Amino acid sequence: MKSFATTVARPFDEVERRVRAALREQGFGVLTEIDIAATLHDKLGVDRPPLKILGACNPHFAQRALEIDPSVSLVLPCNVALETTGDGATRVAIVDPRALMDDPAFSSLAGEAAEALRSVVKSLGVDEDPGLHDR
Amino acid sequence: MKSFATTVARPFDEVERRVRAALREQGFGVLTEIDIAATLHDKLGVDRPPLKILGACNPHFAQRALEIDPSVSLVLPCNVALETTGDGATRVAIVDPRALMDDPAFSSLAGEAAEALRSVVKSLGVDEDPGLHDR
Questions:
Q1: Interface touch B135/A44, C-beta < 8 Å
Q2: Whether pLDDT at B135 is above 90
Q3: Which of A71, A133, A134 should one mutate to test binding to chain B, selecting the residue with the greatest count of B CBs within 10 A?
Q4: Nearest partner of A125 among A2, A14, A31, judged by Cα
Q5: Cβ pair B4, B132 in contact under 8 A
Q6: Which of B34, B36, B59 sits opposite A43 (nearest CB)?
Q7: Which residues pair with B4 in a beta bridge?
Q8: A97 preceded by cis ω (within 30°)?
């Protein structure tokens, strides 16, 4: 799945705060939060490095998307994945909405949403190209 | 986005309870819940029929998927969309995990997850073909 991604050489909690602030600046609220590492520990006893998924949604974009095709509810909200890397840095990846809404009817809207989410990643300070990644 | 879907001629709350029970039976917990109608009303003052997105996750499937490719976190959990139709029935659509995990490395796992989610829709009593829908 295509994403905008970067790795920031700062601890997880600090990067999460910066991601949330940058999303807010682009009009995205965080509607959901899943601590995957904690969930897998609780349910399966599996230990893994920190991994959290934030569900980001800009209500203006969501409303326009639902007007185009209500089935967009199958791919809302946009996932923002935060994980600790081996060297203690934090990787942030945000799904590219153009990959989720690939119907041509969404192209203008998905392009605007992609630009906003790319700005979020860019604002974090870039250790890698904030362009498209295939993971 | 491909989905398994059905329409049940029962009220929203009752169908939601049945969906949650059927998901549990297939090993899926509901990790997130977004009341889209309430969110759009709060943020934009827009009134629309009830629409809720449940984020369903089977920890065994999730763990296996993360072992195959950690970037699967960009598409977790599986969305279950519930909405009231014009005639007061409730439509349930569950995203087909094969559409989210289209890399061949996921094909066996995505197929198993799809079968489980298709069972959820089938168990609701079927007013339409529980096979693949393109919305």
A1: no
A2: no
A3: A71
A4: A14
A5: yes
A6: B59
A7: B94, B132
A8: no
Q: Which of residues 1-20 of B touch A (CB under 8 A)?
A: 1, 3
Separation of alpha carbons B83 and A112, rounded Å: 27
The span from the CA of B61 to the CA of B70, in Å, is: 13
A-B CB pairs within 8 A amount to 115
Residue with tokens 């997130």: B32
Is 0.95 topped by the overall pTM?
A: no
Closest Cα of chain B to A19: distance in Å?
A: 16
pLDDT top residue among A133 and B54: B54
Nearest CB partner across the interface for A71, out of B36, B71, B135: B135
Buried b (16+ CB within 10 A) or exposed e, A37-70: bebbeebeeeebebbbbbbbbbbebbbbbbeeeb
pLDDT interval class at A130 (50, 70, 90): very low
Q: What are phi and psi of A4, to 5 degrees?
A: -100, 130
Distance from C-alpha of B44 to C-alpha of B10, rounded to nearest angstrom: 29
CB atoms A57 and B66 under 8 Å = no
Pairwise CB contact (< 8 Å): B55 & A34: yes
> ipTM score of the complex?
0.92
Angle between helices B107-123 and B59-68 (to 10 degrees): 160
List the single residue in B with minimal CA-CA distance to A59: B40
Q: Chain A partners of B76 at a C-beta cutoff of 8 Å?
A: 34, 36, 53, 79
Instruction: Give the residues across from B33 on adjacent strands.
Output: B54
* End-to-end CA gap in chain A: 6
pLDDT for res A125 = 80
SS3 A75: coil
